[in-house]
Design a protein that fits this description.
The complex is a heterodimer.
Chain A: E1 3-6, E2 11-14, E3 19-21, E4 23-26, E5 32-38, E6 44-50, E7 56-59, E8 62-65, E9 75-77, E10 86-93, E11 101-102, E12 106-111
Parallel strand pairs in A: 2-12
Antiparallel strand pairs in A: 1-4, 3-9, 5-6, 5-10, 7-8, 8-9, 10-11, 10-12
Chain B: E1 5-7, E2 10-13, E3 19-24, E4 31-38, E5 42-50, E6 53-57, E7 64-68, E8 74-78, E9 87-94, E10 106-107, E11 111-115
Parallel strand pairs in B: 2-11
Antiparallel strand pairs in B: 1-3, 3-8, 4-5, 4-9, 5-6, 7-8, 9-10, 9-11
The chains are: A mainly beta, B mainly beta.
Chain lengths: 112, 116
């Protein structure tokens, strides 16, 4: 079945460090891939998305590239800030079944 | 444009009671999905509605039910509450893309249910 696997957290980084959060997926067809972010006390919000192979999604300095050959969608940021502290969810959409499938989430802590 | 609105934001119930949660989607969005978020299980899909029809349901017992009204507002109900139902319940709406499946989801802030 369709599934998403992302690296376990928490991830703790110092400000200005490089961030990578790994995400791999299993899916049939041509899914869309998403990264959502959840700040404390809030719901999820879309961070970036990619709808086909080799697409790169980007937003707020975050990037992720849809790699069909490795079934991956890793999230990267060159220089994290304290305000990036949140939980990040990789997600799989448009797999049929009218639902989005989420990874377990990775909590990021950024220290000043 | 107003976002997704969920009410109530917080509630406390006791075992055996029932609860109804409400979700108003973004204007023009006709698809509404519900998710349960817990520390141990992450985000679990409950159900999705479009034009008052449930199109998919997650692996939850029959105590969990939902509905959607003609104005796209949605409610979910949990009957005979158990301690394990304590969670953040998130509603998300979506503007249907051309392929008819859910694309980008817009989430509300959630309803945090505590069962004592």
């Amino acid at each position: 079945g369709n599934s998403v696997t992302q690296m376990e957290g928490p991830v703790t980084l110092s400000e200005e460090a490089f961030l990578t959060i790994n995400c791999t997926y299993t899916a049939t067809g041509y899914p869309s891939l998403f990264w959502y972010v959840q700040y404390p006390g809030e719901g999820l919000q879309l961070l970036l998305k990619a709808t086909k192979a080799d697409d790169k999604g980007s937003n707020k300095g975050f990037e992720a590239t849809y790699r069909k050959e490795t079934t991956s969608f890793h999230l990267e940021k060159g220089s994290v800030q304290v305000s990036d502290s949140a939980v990040y969810f990789c997600a799989l959409g448009r797999t049929g079944g009218f639902k989005t499938i989420f990874g377990a989430g990775t909590r990021l802590f950024v220290k000043a | 444009k107003a976002g997704v609105t969920q009410t109530p934001r917080y509630l406390i119930k006791t075992r055996g009671q029932q609860v109804t949660l409400s979700c108003s989607p973004i204007s023009g969005h006709r698809s509404v999905s519900w998710y349960q978020q817990t520390p141990g299980q992450g985000l679990q899909f409950l159900f999705e509605y479009f034009s008052e029809t449930q199109r998919n349901k997650g692996n939850f017992p029959g105590r969990f039910s939902g509905r959607q009204f003609s104005n796209s507002r949605s409610e979910m109900n949990v009957s005979t509450l158990e301690l394990g139902d304590s969670a953040l319940y998130l509603c998300a709406s979506s503007f249907l893309p051309d392929r008819g499946d859910t694309g980008e989801l817009f989430f509300g802030e959630g309803s945090r249910l505590t069962v004592l």
